[in-house]
Amino acid sequence: MAPVEFVQENQSLSMAQGTIRGLHFQSEPFAQGKLVRCVEGAIFDVAVDLRHGSPTYGQWAGATLTAQDCNQLWIPSGFAHGFCTLVPQTVVAYKVTAYYSRENDLGLAWDDPDVNVAWPDVADPTKLSAKDQVQPRLADLPSYFEVAN
């Protein structure tokens, strides 16, 4: 694996339990790998494979990240990322391998039935941002990422 270079670190605060953020990604040439950790509170963190040709295309993986456990999740370029806060006043920090680009900032519907993420019971769709309320389904996304043969 090639060395990873982080160019930016971001932090978000969610005041309410059940806040859903994502599923987000950036397209080339600003595609991002993310190293995610929870510095206060707890989250259920999710990555969805968007790489056409991948044997895991459209599948998701999730992990609970907590400030107490000090664990992290690496999300490679070509994956959408999102999370749900498990407790109030949760702070998430994530380092990224490419700078933010508004033109390349994209998303996937958090509740796409074809992806079928098993969000925790506390997930509250009324706490979605306006941006996250209108993200497309996987079937409607162009092919932003390809796996080389």
UniProtKB/TrEMBL annotation:
Record has Isomerase as a keyword: yes
Any one Pfam family match given in the protein's UniProt record, by short name: dTDP_sugar_isom
UniProt keyword Isomerase present: yes
Catalytic residues in the record: H24 (proton acceptor), Y94 (proton donor)
Catalytic reactions of this protein: dTDP-4-dehydro-6-deoxy-alpha-D-glucose = dTDP-4-dehydro-beta-L-rhamnose
Annotated site residue numbers, Participates in a stacking interaction with the thymidine ring of dTDP-4-oxo-6-deoxyglucose: Y100
GO cellular component term of the entry, any: cytosol
A GO BP entry: dTDP-rhamnose biosynthetic process
Enzyme class label: isomerase
Signal peptide feature range: none
Pathway: Carbohydrate biosynthesis; dTDP-L-rhamnose biosynthesis
EC number: 5.1.3.13
Entry keywords, A to Z: Isomerase
MF terms (GO), sorted A to Z: dTDP-4-dehydrorhamnose 3,5-epimerase activity
Domain of life: Bacteria
Family indicated by similarity: Belongs to the dTDP-4-dehydrorhamnose 3,5-epimerase family.
Subunit structure: Homodimer.
Chain's role: Catalyzes the epimerization of the C3' and C5'positions of dTDP-6-deoxy-D-xylo-4-hexulose, forming dTDP-6-deoxy-L-lyxo-4-hexulose.
Protein name: dTDP-4-dehydrorhamnose 3,5-epimerase
Source organism of the structure: Novosphingobium nitrogenifigens DSM 19370
Lineage: Bacteria, Pseudomonadati, Pseudomonadota, Alphaproteobacteria, Sphingomonadales
